[in-house]
Design a protein that fits this description.
Layout (H helix, E strand, L loop, with lengths): L2 H14 L8 E5 L11 E7 L17 E7 L2 E7 L10 H14 L3 E10 L9 E9 L27 H13 L4 E8 L8 H9 L4 E3 L3 H9 L4 E10 L10 H24 L6
Parallel strand pairs: 1-4, 1-5, 5-9, 6-7, 7-8
Antiparallel strand pairs: 2-3, 3-4, 5-8, 6-9
Length: 277
């Protein structure tokens, strides 16, 4: 048996001994985002180091725990803190939780992140639905998965973000009077922020926002046939002609200020999901 398959099975078995109900929706929370937990009827909270196959989260502002519970009556798994390439983890470690959540039964995956706004109309605190992405990471989570047990090796990515989920998010934004923009997200290795020349390059190649996560999880979600959608919170403005120093404390602050709006968006979205799809 392939080691990755064995590790997934071991992790799923661990959870099944603790869960009384099958989860339907997975949520991955990005940097500085976590208010949705306050709206969740929590059944269980498990720190990453307690979970087989889950390394500890090394980023100090990521709590590093899985939360199981109900949100608007829907069984959810909330990943409070994700893994990043810049932490030194492999792409398979970064995306391992997505594979586990799918095996536990989720039928939809919602992701969030903090991102820099490259497009001139994107301002701090804006929410942006990721319509497409550019992968600038130096590694791929599908590399080496040659065993037929994993399915199609050459995953099609013409529409990596679920159209149905994106439409549901836009409907939810309208219902809650939330200004939800759309944009193309570029994923870079990090952890440093970009130079003025790099922001110009990103704009030239079609990126409208930039961050250090999300794309590996999206690739794997498509690999395993899991509908997914992602929303960025713009935490800094990346105009190379007017670039100012940004530190992580400011990014966390801006993300926190937008967190309640993002929570409203996700709560409304989940309320209208067909969780059987």
């Amino acid at each position: 048996m392939n080691d990755l398959v064995r590790n997934i099975q071991e992790c799923v078995s661990f959870f099944q001994k603790r869960l009384s109900e099958q989860p339907a929706v997975g949520i991955v929370l990005g940097t500085g985002l976590g208010a949705i937990v306050d709206h969740t009827e929590i059944a269980d909270t498990i720190a990453y180091p307690e979970i087989p196959g889950f390394p500890p989260a090394t980023v100090e502002f990521h709590k590093g725990q899985l939360i199981f519970g109900k949100l608007n009556g829907v069984n959810v798994i909330i990943m409070q803190g994700r893994y990043h390439y810049y932490e030194g983890y492999t792409m398979q470690q970064i995306t391992f939780p997505v594979r586990v959540m799918k095996e536990l039964g989720i039928t939809n995956l919602l992701l969030s992140n903090a991102a820099g706004g490259i497009r001139k109309d994107l301002k701090k605190g804006n929410l942006v639905l990721i319509d497409d992405h550019i992968n600038l990471l130096p590694e791929n989570p599908l590399r080496g998965l040659n065993d037929p047990v994993f399915g199609n090796r050459f995953v099609d990515m013409c529409a990596p973000y679920s159209q149905a989920l994106n439409l549901r998010l836009m409907d939810a934004a309208k219902a809650r009077s939330i200004d939800l923009k759309k944009g193309v997200y570029a994923s870079v290795p990090g952890p440093n922020l970009e130079t003025r020349a790099e922001y110009r390059y990103l704009e030239i190649i079609g990126a409208e926002m930039v961050g250090m996560s999300t794309v590996p999880e999206i690739i794997v979600a498509n690999h395993i046939g899991l509908p997914c959608a992602a929303v960025s919170v713009i935490t800094d403005e990346c105009d190379p002609d007017n670039l100012k120093p940004v530190d992580i404390a400011e990014i966390i602050k801006v993300a926190g200020e937008a967190d309640n709006v993002l929570t409203d968006l996700f709560v409304e979205t989940i309320a209208g999901l067909d969780i059987s799809s």
